[in-house]
Design goal:
Elements lengths: L14 E4 L4 E3 H5 L4 E6 L5 H19 L3 E6 L3 H11 L5 E3 L4 H5 L16 E6 L3 E7 L9 H15 L8 H8 L4 H12 L3
Length: 195
């Protein structure tokens, strides 16, 4: 991984083709929410498939917690669709068949010249594509558990949501003072932009 991809750094706003053949930028997929970005070898890898299967159930928690999930693999569009549907995923999968992300981040998995995948990583991003945490998943147990991600997203949500604790005097005063945007902006955005 490039030496500048560390907590607090700005993650590149890659634009790739998603599983529906539509071009998507990471910033647009993230919006104003925390996001977990999975950099995957692809559907051929049993470790990556198992990780994705575990994330299927967790994704439901992420949705109600206003957090997003995106997978990027070196699979082409056809294989990306097979990977996504094969594990029962409902979040965006992006194809990096040209290896642009792999090359830019310097994560070519040189131990597998046959597939030429990227070294698996999980990047937890705070709003604005700011790196919160980086996990190296070359070995399966280097990847975050669901509990690791739950803890990361709890800490991150607490950091980026002004209404995390609505029992504080400041939040009560904001509500009484008519500053309801601190409470309702998330709801308004979600209701006006349904998935």
């Amino acid at each position: 991984m490039r030496s500048d991809i560390v907590p607090g750094a700005l993650f590149p706003d890659y634009e790739l083709t998603d599983h529906t053949a539509k071009r998507r930028k990471l910033s647009a997929l993230q919006g104003q929410h925390p996001m977990v970005l999975v950099l995957s070898r692809g559907g051929y890898c049993p470790k990556d498939r198992r990780q994705a299967e575990l994330l299927v159930q967790f994704h439901r928690e992420m949705e109600v917690g206003y957090c997003h999930l995106v997978t990027i693999s070196t699979d082409n569009i056809t294989l990306t669709n097979e990977y996504r549907s094969g594990v029962g995923a409902h979040w965006p999968f992006l194809s990096d068949a040209s290896r642009s992300v792999q090359k830019d981040l310097d994560i070519a998995e040189y131990t597998d010249p046959d597939h030429n995948p990227m070294i698996p990583h999980v990047i937890v991003l705070q709003p604005g594509l700011i790196v919160y945490k980086v996990y190296n998943g070359y070995w399966f147990f280097g990847r975050p558990t669901l509990e690791d991600l739950r803890q990361d997203l709890r800490a991150l949500t607490q950091k980026c949501r002004p209404d995390w604790d609505i029992t504080t005097q400041e939040m009560r005063s904001a509500w009484k003072g008519g500053r309801k945007e601190l409470f309702l902006s998330i709801w308004q955005n979600l209701c006006s932009n349904p998935r």
